[in-house]
Amino acid sequence: MTSLVPSLAVSDHQAETAAPAKTIQPVWVRIVHWTNAFAMILMIMSGWQIYNASPLFSFSFSRSITLGGWLGGALLWHFAAMWLLMVNGLVYLALGFATGRFRKKLLPITPGGVIADTRAALTFKLSHDDLSKYNSVQKLLYAGIITVGVVIVLSGLSMWKPVQLHWLVSLFGGYDFARYVHFTCMALIVAFLVIHVALALLVPKSLRAMIIGR
Amino acid sequence: MGRLRKLLIPGVDKKLLVRDAVKTMPELTRRRFITAGTSLGALTLLTGCDVVDSSSAEELLKHVSKFNDAVQAWIFNPDALAPTFPESAITKPFPFNAYYDLDDAPEIAGADWKLEVRGLVENKKSWTLDELYKLPQVKQVTRHICVEGWSAIGSWTGTPLRDFLKLVGADMRAKYVWFQCADKDGYNSPLDMRTALHPQTQMTFKFADQILPRAYGFPMKIRVPTKLGFKNPKYVLSMEVTNDYKGGYWEDQGYNSFSGS
Fold it and tell me: Which residues of A sit within 8 Å Cβ distance of B?
């Protein structure tokens, strides 16, 4: 959802001399991005505390990284932050389609392009003078994480309302399986977050663009 | 609501935070600040950030939880049935779950027990177990979903609560049916009337075709397949039809009151 730049080959100096400053991240993208970041962190940390009440696997999350203090507190956080996450997510999807941003930024994604750009990135040859254009790896990761975001919300809704939305639970293979789907999406988002933040810190101008727009 | 536990980010010690913040101030400001009281509220004003103010965060979360009660009541479809399963799907052994050990579960003598009926009902007579057993019963095999996340499928047999409420002439326009139970520390729980009238909400007398064992709530439990497990009272002593929200054992500690599934 932001200008993640899997290239270490471009220096700030090059980018600044390339063209006069233009808006890379419009203001609505920046607002929904940081709102999403805040909501997502609340959801993940409270979700870990909820997981601990009945772990799916043979591990629990350390209490030092969970939110809520106990199951009841974590549920209050989770079911409050979900509104922020969902409303913000819907605004993002609506504007993403309406403004044509998804089409312009994320399409097309071709297997050949992804392979070529992955190879270029791994050999530090991925040129990326223009932060406003995503390479194929970025396109794939962003389209993928948006999809994961939709699935984690839908699987979460199915677990919240397994009777009223029983058709949705069936879609996820039943209540117990929906828990694994929800957990897997969380793991994918956390993995994405680690790479995303690491690259934003390695290429600070991408972080700057997500804060001041240019 | 006194038992609502800490909701804040662990590791953030409020007192230390205030002390550190005060240290960074110039001497004069620091003195004034301390004179004015080193309250967290003051720090909130100072930083414009109330994430560290646990009481206001708690208040906000409680408000959102009440909002979620209303949203869930709106989503609740009185005709939507909880999925049912074949007997082969029943979880064996069905877990015992409570806030105490099985050894501490109430031991009730069925012959002495009577169900007390109170509040907005025409007939307030108490019911013996034999009288209740004579009412028409139906069986359901449904999924019990715990607030902790696990679930188990069980077989419950008993009288639809709505039939009993009709029988005793309950005011169906009242807001709640409030159950008081024999669990230690006094479990109780309010059930919204629309859920109480749901066709699958049941006064349960049998589990897996056997008289309800002590572990699952003898002599009577209320099976509510459209609610999380903690809103399925066991060892029921009385039911009261009321318009007042009287709170509940778990609800008062912070679990969402509607907790519908």
Answer: 45, 50-51, 53-54, 63-64, 66-73, 75-77, 79-80, 83, 160-164, 166, 175-176, 179
